[in-house]
Design brief:
With about 425 residues, the protein is mainly β. The protein has seven helices and 24 strands. It folds into two domains: about 260 residues, Thrombin, subunit H, CATH 2.40.10.120; about 100 residues, Pdz3 Domain. Strands 2, 4, 5, 6, 7, 8, 9 and 10 form an eight-stranded mixed sheet that branches. It has a six-stranded antiparallel beta barrel with strand order 11-12-13-16-15-14. It is globular and about 65 Å long. The protein starts with 7 loop residues before the first strand and ends in a 7-residue tail after the last strand.
């Protein structure tokens, strides 16, 4: 991946005693999935196209928009085009505030601390000899601090957040909305979805209302709650900008939700809510070269991962044991293949890995996986990740110009590769 396409966790890199810095994944100048910035979202429902043909007694469009007058008082047609008016759901002036108030008790602030040792090089004595006992140099311990957000998943102290918030932390401090503070412990994490589960020792916690990401549509209302730059329980409003986004460097499994609700460093791990106050995603990242281009992990993925982490502490991930490379005309030419060659090159098979055991070799070109053609490594990954260890996976490869079907027994990704 090119350097400019890397995801950078916005992490407090200051020395001991520095103020905490908000954490979120920032995507600087990402070339893929680029698009022009969307226009600002409309905050209030549009009712101008449904003006009554004649004044109605004691009724105004403002009252209808605020939910203080029934929609039935709108006329059957309007003066602008003669068509039936836009039918609006009641949207009172306190709707967002009520949703935020109800959801905030299940949102927590997460402070993390990480210590690391840096060797500043050899030290020098007053006499000019590098004996390591004099001025400067030597190993020094530094500390970074960061801030993120979490969502209460179960009343007995389980909290969901992003893996990039707490995955490498030495100390975790959870602050509830009522200002009580508890030490947190990571009890499970999944780098593939950037999710982690933290446990605090307390009961009777208010649990978030988890909805579903199925049926989301661009234009649906979206509400974000979190701790941008440490300002806990901040509320922002926007819409769902897109669904099913594939963004390099984010979840290797889930297709993320795009939103224009303002998300900043510190919002990571906080909830993205729908207009019913239900969690529809967990905020994860922003585009560093744009404005109001944020991404959230779909809640159905979140719920599935959380259950497995509680039950098992980790997640078994399907594994082939190959390094892959997309075939483009330049690579095809270097391999002596026709320029129109499509597929995914097996650059390397892991010794004793599932692919190698099944007979896949270096230089094979993967053409079809599970009956679907593949053109990129991500296509192969998506097919593999639909399986669990010990499942059978059908692969069709091209080798020396001949097609060869291979049946692979999917392996379990080594533990060291899950961290």
């Amino acid at each position: 991946m090119a350097e400019k396409n890397k995801l950078l966790p916005w992490f407090g890199g200051a020395a001991l005693g520095a103020a905490a810095v908000g954490i979120i994944v920032v995507i600087p100048q990402l070339s893929s999935n680029s698009s022009s910035s969307p226009s600002a979202p409309t905050i209030l429902p549009q009712v101008s196209a449904a003006l009554p043909a004649a004044p109605l007694p004691n009724v105004s469009v403002d009252k209808i928009a605020a939910g203080k007058a029934p929609l039935s008082q709108l006329p059957a047609t309007n003066l602008l085009n003669g068509r039936p008016p836009l039918m609006l759901s009641p949207f009172g002036e306190n709707t967002i505030a009520d949703i935020a108030k109800d959801a905030s008790d299940s949102v927590v602030n997460i402070d993390i601390r990480k210590s690391y040792v840096v060797d500043d090089g050899p030290s020098f004595s007053p006499f000019g000899f590098g004996d390591g006992q004099g001025f400067g140099g030597g190993a020094h311990t530094y500390e970074t601090r960061g801030v993120g957000t979490g969502v209460i998943y179960r009343s007995d102290g389980y909290i969901l957040t992003n893996n990039h918030v707490v995955g490498q932390a030495d100390d975790i401090l959870i602050t509830l909305n009522d200002k009580r503070k508890f030490k947190g412990k990571v009890v499970g994490r999944d780098p593939f979805t950037d999710l982690a589960l933290v446990k605090i020792e307390v009961g009777n916690l208010p649990v978030a209302r988890f909805g579903t990401s199925i049926g989301l549509r661009p234009g649906d209302w979206a509400i974000a709650i979190g701790s941008p730059l440490g300002m806990d329980h901040s509320v922002t409003l926007g819409i769902i900008s897109a669904i099913g986004r594939q963004v390099d460097g984010l979840s290797q499994i889930a297709e993320v939700i795009q939103t224009d609700a303002a998300i900043n460093p510190g919002n990571s791990g906080g909830p993205l809510l729908n207009i019913h106050g239900e969690v529809i995603g967990l905020n994860e990242a922003i585009r560093g070269d744009g404005q109001n281009i944020g991404f959230a992990i779909p809640v159905d993925t979140v719920k599935d991962v959380a259950k497995q982490l509680i039950d098992h502490g980790s997640i078994a991930r399907a594994y082939l044991g190959i390094n892959m490379q997309e075939i483009n005309p330049e690579l095809a030419e270097s391999l002596g293949l026709p320029n129109e060659t499509k597929g995914v090159l097996v650059a390397r098979t892991m010794p004793d890995g599932p692919a190698a055991k099944a007979g896949i070799e270096n230089g094979d070109i993967i053409q079809i996986v599970d009956g679907s053609s593949v053109q990129t490594p991500k296509d192969v990954q998506k097919s593999v990740f639909k399986h669990r260890p010990n499942d059978k996976l059908s692969v069709l490869v091209s080798r020396n110009g001949a097609l060869k079907p291979i049946m692979v027994t999917v392996g379990d990704r080594p533990t060291k590769d899950r961290s």
